[in-house]
Design brief:
- There is one protein chain.
- The protein has 406 residues and is α/β, with parallel strands linked by helices.
- It has three domains: 5-172, Rossmann fold (3-Layer(aba) Sandwich); 176-350, Argininosuccinate synthetase, chain A, domain 2, CATH 3.90.1260.10; 358-400, Up-down Bundle (Single alpha-helices involved in coiled-coils or other helix-helix interfaces).
- It is built from 14 helices and 14 strands.
- The protein has helices at 14-25, 44-54, 65-78, 90-109, 124-135, 144-147, 152-161, 233-245, 271-287, 290-308, 315-328, 358-361, 372-381, 383-400, and strands at residues 4-9, 29-37, 58-63, 113-115, 140-142, 174-178, 181-185, 211-219, 222-226, 229-230, 251-257, 263-269, 333-340, 343-350.
- A hairpin with a 2-residue loop joins strand 9 (222-226) and strand 10 (229-230).
- The chain is elongated and about 90 Å long.
- It starts with a strand and ends in a 6-residue tail after the last helix.
- Bound molecules: arginine (ARG).
- Residues 91-92, 123-124, 174, 176, 183, 185, 256, 266 line the site of arginine (ARG).
């Protein structure tokens, strides 16, 4: 009898490694593993070897770094994508892409199921499941860790019994990395009061007391050059990560609301994301009207919330992208940033689309702004507020004087 095939999203970590064996032994699948490269800098040859050693009948590596940058990270830059105003969404953006690639392979291989190693406690299960079901609601999804309610300890025990190779020096933390950032969870930093030790970080450095500058150029909302050099988006992100991270910039430490209701202490390092979004927001303030800015802030927040919550495939996300793209036709120009000991600030910006007009704003002679127009405007602008206050005063006076108001 031939077994059905299952295609597993495989990272090479503990969860997905034990999944290979569970899928074989308990679910009787032939397992095809797929590793999608979004810039996690792993040893992909080793990962393939490991998958096959555990029992995968076939392993597929997909380099999706450029697709990830172009189709997921750039829209997020345009949307100033930060969940709860803090988290640059690195993992959340990569999951729908990984799920899509796994579905493509399942289709080619005519698999009976797709599988992932997510637990039932996190956000990633939501992002995987919803993307997969949007792409093919009939295909079975198997999530062994979640289905069997496994803990990390039972997984390790199972791995040992089954001779599944796991990292002997298991990392202290649960880490996820791609070009847009690195997340660090678990271990001692689950104590929300404990300052994360410097050793938890890789992209952010702590030994430079100097001041640094970086200049970013945007075109239609996308960063296209840095420090005067045109670069493709992947190289640009790498350059900014290195340069900005060297000054200690890029750490996010906050309490985050997961979709499933759990509050968790999350630590990220994302120097490029923090710097690029800060610069992008600043440039928008120069070129968009105050009406556009107010409304776009709502759109950006909704967009970030949807991506975090696994709703990349929802039509509303695409509708929001259309609005955002339209606003970005004016977001072109240069932004200068300064870094020192973990602090980052915008110190200059310019754009051909600038609505900042020096002859209007200046305090010096030569202003073209007619102050005479202001008087009437201020009167009308405050009309209701002044009236409302006057009415209250009047009513109080009447009551005190015992007079009846009309
Ligand atoms: N809290 C972040 C998110 O929900 C990071 C999750 C990291 N995932 C992981 N499997 N290590 O996007």
């Amino acid at each position: 009898m031939v077994n059905d095939k299952a295609v597993l999203a495989y990272s090479g970590g503990l969860d997905t490694s034990v999944c290979i064996r569970y899928l074989q032994k308990l679910y009787h699948f032939d397992v095809i593993t797929v590793t999608v490269d979004c810039g996690q800098n792993d040893d992909f040859k080793e990962i393939e070897k490991k998958a096959k050693a555990i029992g995968a009948i076939k392993h597929i590596y997909i380099d999706a770094k450029e697709e990830f940058a172009l189709n997921y990270v750039i829209p997020s830059i345009k949307a100033n994508g930060l969940y709860q105003s803090k988290y640059p969404l690195a993992t959340a953006l990569a999951r729908p892409l990984i799920a899509t690639k796994v579905m493509d392979v399942a289709n080619i291989e005519q698999a009976a199921a797709v599988a992932h190693g997510c637990t039932g406690k996190g956000n990633d299960q939501i992002r995987f499941d919803i993307t997969m079901r949007c792409l093919n609601p009939k295909l079975k999804i198997v999530a062994p860790i979640r289905d069997m309610n496994l803990t990390r300890d039972t997984e390790i025990k199972f791995a040992e019994e089954q001779n599944i190779p796991i990292n002997t020096v298991a990392s202290k933390y649960s880490v996820d990395l791609n070009i847009w950032g690195r997340s660090i969870e678990g271990g001692d930093i689950e104590d929300a009061y404990l300052e994360p030790p410097e050793e938890a970080f890789q992209l952010v450095k702590f030994n430079d007391d100097n001041t640094g500058y970086i200049e970013l150029e945007f075109k239609d909302g996308s960063p296209i050059a840095v420090d005067g050099q045109n670069m493709n988006i992947n190289n640009l992100i790498e350059y900014v990560n290195k340069k900005v991270g060297a000054f200690g910039v890029g750490i996010v430490d906050h309490i985050e609301d997961r979709v499933v209701g759990i509050k968790s202490r999350e630590i990220y390092e994302a120097p490029a994301a923090i710097a690029i979004i800060e610069a992008h927001k600043d440039l928008e303030k120069m070129v968009l009207t105050k009406h556009e800015l107010r409304f776009k802030q709502l759109v950006d927040e909704q967009w970030s919330w949807m991506i975090y919550s696994g709703l990349w495939q929802d039509p509303l996300r695409i509708d929001l992208d259309r609005f955002i793209d339209e606003t970005q036709t004016k977001v072109s120009g240069q932004v200068k940033l300064k870094m020192r000991r973990g602090a980052l600030s915008v110190i200059g910006r310019e754009s051909a689309y600038s609505l900042y007009k020096n002859d209007l704003a200046t305090f010096s002679t030569g202003s073209t702004f007619d102050q005479g127009l202001a008087k009437g405007f201020v009167e009308l602008w405050g009309l209701q507020s002044v009236t409302a206050n006057a009415v209250v005063t009047e009513v109080k006076l009447d009551q005190n004087g015992g007079k009846k108001s009309r």
